[in-house]
Amino acid sequence: MAVSNSTAIAILLISFLVMILLRFPIAFAVAISSCICLVSQGTSLSTLCQFMVKGISSFSLMAVPFFITMGVIMGKGGISEKLIAFADACVGWMTGGMAMVNIVASYFFGGISGSAAADTASLGTILIPMMVDQGYDDDFSTAVTITSSCEGLLVPPSHNMVIYATSAGGLSVGALFLAGYIPGALLAISLMIGSFIISKRRHYPKGEKFSIKRFFKQLGISIWALAAIIIVVIGVVGGVFTATESAAIAVLYSIFVSMVIYKGMTWKSFWNALEECINTLSIVLILISTSAVFGNCLTRLHVPDLAANAITGVSTNPIVIALLLNLILLLLGCIMDMAPIILIATPILLPIATSIGLDPIQFGIMVILNCGIGLLTPPVGAVLFIGSAVGKVKMEKVVKATLPFYLCMIITLLLITFIPGISMMLPSLFK
């Protein structure tokens, strides 16, 4: 006998939360709770398989494996050192120069990897020991590394943007790519201001004086890596090819740069990189397929409508509702990983966001930054754990050192929320 909708909702959400608290892998928690919900309503389990297949049967999602592959190959191909040297030539002369280099290098590398975890693991292994050797505190060095890694989530090409575009009902990936540039730069500037203030108070050192000759020399070396971003973004925005086609071309280009130009990758390391890509991609696709079932359960039970009524019942003020949306996403980020939040929360919260005048593209940038902050917060902050391991610093110490940077990120989030032009300027300009 099928249970009522309210009972089914309780079964779905309570079973999901219990499994999250028991530290089940998120894909299993999503799948099992959805399965229990479907059974309680008398639905055949064959429906679960149909929803899972339908969830990953999307042309837009074909870009995700290519972007992941491009990021891994570029990361393994000796790109990190080139971008660090270029960032040093740009901002290393400032007070707290190595912190500034860390932040700027993350902006460049994030545009290649599209992953905060990859950014932290790749740049952190180089920059954290380098900063400590120059007199920076280890917890500060780690905090700068993990917070600046979130720039890579906003700067295209980010596979999380592709996932959001699909979850939001087929938004323009090109418009989302363009929308991320200014918020990513704003986040970098905010973190640089915070780093500058701390560096002044703690008397951290400056780097070498700025040199035009050195700047252009490093630009000439790094331009091959940066060109990958140009190929993807200009190709997609200019309508030369789709996001999937651009991602496939970027993979071929990344292989060429890594093996021929920088010679940082051999065929053996290339196959190892592909193995890492498969591991990452399998996790992402399992999450997408199981989240499709979970999302369908939520839709059938009218949870989006109930959530909208609950939030608007608190207040009808658009400012209050926008703040509540951010708060919900931040809380979800504390207990869930990024991809499942995007997949599950977008269908529920996007209608509420559009009802108060937020553009779906602007809301997408808000979702991604909120999820990025969640990656840095306990108890399940993946990037926080990676940074702590790479920097060899206790997690509690890293969290304490990160507090000023949390403030910088929250300020950036509020600016993006209440100033639409930050996200919408470039998409509107290029239409």
Describe the structure.
It is a single chain. The protein contains 21 helices and no strands. It is mainly α and 431 residues long. The chain has one domain. Helix 20 crosses helix 21. The longest helix has 34 residues, at 267-300. The model has no long low-confidence stretch (mean pLDDT 82).
Count of helix runs? 21
- Overall number of structural domains: 1
Number of strands: 0
Assign the structural class, choosing from mainly alpha, mainly beta, alpha/beta, alpha+beta, or little secondary structure. Answer: mainly alpha
* Residue windows where pLDDT falls under 50 for at least 5 positions: none
Major pleated sheet: none
Percent helix, as a range, is: over 70%
Q: What share of the residues does DSSP label as strand, in percent? A: under 5%
Order of helices and strands: HHHHHHHHHHHHHHHHHHHHH
> How confident is the prediction overall: mean pLDDT?
82
Overall 3D form: globular
Rg result: 22 Å
Task: Provide tags for this entry.
single chain, mainly alpha, globular
Summarize the structure.
This protein is an all-alpha fold. The protein has helices at 5-21, 26-40, 46-56, 63-76, 79-91, 97-113, 116-133, 138-148, 151-154, 159-167, 173-202, 212-237, 243-261, 267-300, 303-314, 318-335, 338-355, 360-374, 382-391, 395-418, 420-430.
Topology (elements, then pairings):
Blueprint: H1 5-21, H2 26-40, H3 46-56, H4 63-76, H5 79-91, H6 97-113, H7 116-133, H8 138-148, H9 151-154, H10 159-167, H11 173-202, H12 212-237, H13 243-261, H14 267-300, H15 303-314, H16 318-335, H17 338-355, H18 360-374, H19 382-391, H20 395-418, H21 420-430
